[in-house]
Amino acid sequence: MFEVVLSTGSYAFWLIVISLLCLLLERIRPWRRNQRLWRRQFGQDLFFLVFNGHFFPILLASVAAYLLRGLPDEGHGLLGGAPWAVQFLVVFLAKDFLEWCVHRLLHAAPWLWQFHKLHHSIEELDWIGNFRFHWMEIVVYKSLTYLPLLLLEVPGDVILPIAVVSTLIGDLNHANLFISWGPLRYVLNSPRMHVWHHDIEKHLRHGQNYAVVFSIWDWVFRTVYWPDDRKQPEQLGFTRQRFFPTGLLARLVYPFWKKTGPRPGVTS
Predict the structure, then answer these.
(1) Which of 70, 147, 149, 198 is most open to solvent, judged by the fewest CB atoms within 10 Å of its CB?
(2) Which long-range contacts (CB under 8 A, 24 or more apart) does 63-67 make?
(3) CA–CA separation, 177 vs 47, rounded Å?
(4) Could you give the C-alpha distances from 87 to 68, 90, 91, 105, in angstroms and in order?
């Protein structure tokens, strides 16, 4: 296990490298200088980093491999024989668009919002907040994105770099960093754009700035809210958050006993 973690061909290795990089960048040049490293619930987010970033995806992948056993291994994919760069670009764009759709669905569907509330319980945004989400979101994302991508039959040497880049951008988007990417803001998501996604106020029907990696989907579908390049939301979270549990176990079981209420941003 230790050798696997240290291998550059392991996602766990890159998860550690990216985490340390973002932690260092936040210490060197933070956007919000009064935000502490060991902020409230940071320890809880360490659990989510390890569980959601490593252990649960491995478990889910093992279950998926068992359920999909017997399917042809190769020769039937739509990208079969395509150059590596073409496979990387096509799959990256397709996967990110599907994830943008799923993210929007997590806000629009009341029963899915009960799971997504955990991520929006973040009150002080930093890189590790990228991993604060309910394990059911992994099931939803993987089911609605990777199953369609099976049609493309993408090899592992394409999936791993995509996962690494996605994790890097995702961590940076949640990081306490003053980054907007300049003219590339219309293509790439950034901390200054994503912070408005966590605004307690919903500026569009179900929320805004659903971008995961590529911001272009928000610009195309007009779900962008970015009032000022230097301005930040006055408060992060969601309405009636005072009724949301703060304990780890309670947060994990909450969606299963919470009755589905109104859509997010309305009264719950």
Answers:
(1) 70
(2) 64/142, 64/146
(3) 23
(4) 22, 5, 6, 27
Cα 243 from Cα 217, distance rounded (Å): 33
Task: Please count the residues of the chain.
Answer: 268
DSSP class per residue in 164-214: HHHHHHHHHHHSS-----GGGGGTB--HHHHGGGGBSS-SSSS-S---SSB
Residue of 135, 125, 113 lying closest to 194 (CA atoms): 125
| 62-85 confidence digits (pLDDT tens) | 887 777 676 555 545 677 678 889
**Which pTM does this prediction carry?**
0.88
For 204, phi and psi rounded to 5 degrees? -120, -175
Angle value at C-alpha 177, between 142 and 189, nearest 5 degrees? 40
pLDDT digits (tens, 9 = 90+) for 124-156: 999 999 999 999 999 999 888 877 777 777 777
